[in-house]
TrEMBL record:
Transmembrane helix among keywords: no
One example GO MF annotation: ligand-gated monoatomic ion channel activity
Keyword Iron in record: no
Record's GO cellular component terms: membrane
Domain Ionotropic glutamate receptor C-terminal: 49-268
A Pfam short name: SBP_bac_3
Keyword terms: Signal
Membrane-spanning residues: none
The Solute-binding protein family 3/N-terminal domain, residue ranges: 49-269
Protein name: Basic amino acid ABC transporter substrate-binding protein
Protein species of origin: Streptomyces fructofermentans
PROSITE patterns in the cross-refs: PROKAR_LIPOPROTEIN
């Protein structure tokens, strides 16, 4: 499908995706002989749509707002879908499915977008796009806990989201964190006193502390630069889709769309805080 001039500007309006297996008409059609649908040379698991698997909620990257899944990841993948002439449809699944590549291998989705850190271990199961975001870990603590640094977590009741690099980092430093299924559950555990502090991706903390009640009761006690970069994942060997994602990221970076979406969903844009889409993962 030919790209219409000015499409990037139009994408800066509220970006949305629908949760569920809903077929959305697009520019592709089923091939003869029962082959899967393709769009611009990219093979899709379901005709007319780019099916994205994620794990909700994980604001500001993806969460349900006013009945629709929205966020930074969703907005970036909408750009990929538009390039392919289709619509994005989002499915909510356990995060573990993305680490193992299970959802991709089972043909349940074309890609996974879940604020997922690129690691060598995960590369054994899936192919990553170019990195699109640099993330640090944060220690978020109750202001009354006396915790002022990561070192202060020893002997404290600490929480982390299950199956994440934050949990892995805490364990690697000798901690035994309480595991929570999602970032929302983790932060609620901190709010309700189940834990005194959490180790969590800093971008999530930024959004959570915008609420004055949260900021009054909790603080960022430490920032940990772990050198993490987020990437989108595709099934092993799906180079056509990986290339399409990388092209959309590079285009968004060069024409200013990435910066505008970053400021909308994350906060003030700092070149050093975003990974270069042209860099190899």
């Amino acid at each position: 499908m030919k790209m219409v001039p000015g499409r990037r500007a139009r994408m800066l309006a509220a970006t949305t995706a629908t949760v569920g297996l809903v077929l959305v008409a697009g520019c592709s059609s089923d091939d003869d002989g029962g082959k899967k649908t393709t769009a611009n040379g990219v093979e899709l698991v379901k005709g007319g749509q780019l099916t994205t698997c994620t794990h909700l909620p994980y604001p500001p990257f993806q969460s349900e707002i006013d009945g629709k899944v929205q966020g930074f990841d969703v907005a970036l993948i909408d750009l990929v879908a538009e390039d392919l002439g289709v619509k994005q449809v989002v499915l909510d699944q356990p995060f573990e499915n993305f680490k193992t590549g299970g959802s991709l291998n089972a043909g349940q989705c074309d890609l996974a977008a879940a604020g997922m850190t690129i690691t060598d271990e995960r590369k054994k199961n899936v192919d990553f796009s170019d990195p699109y975001f640099e993330a640090t870990q944060a220690v978020l603590a109750d202001r009354k806990s006396g915790i002022t640094s990561f070192a202060d977590l020893k002997g404290k009741k600490v929480g982390a989201q299950a199956q994440t690099t934050g949990e892995e980092y805490a364990k690697s430093k000798g901690l035994d964190p309480v595991s929570f299924e999602s970032s929302d559950a983790l932060l609620n555990g901190l709010r309700t006193g189940q834990v005194q502090a959490v180790v969590i991706d800093y971008p999530v903390v930024q959004g959570w502390l915008k609420d004055k009640a949260n900021a009054d009761a909790f603080k960022v006690a430490d920032n940990i630069n772990t050198g993490e970069e987020y990437g989108f994942t595709v099934k092993k060997g799906n180079t056509a889709l990986a290339d399409a994602i990388n092209k959309a990221l590079a285009d968004a970076k060069s024409d200013g769309t990435y910066k505008k979406l970053y400021e909308k969903w994350i906060g003030p844009y700092d070149e050093s805080a975003s990974a270069s889409p042209s860099a190899a993962s």
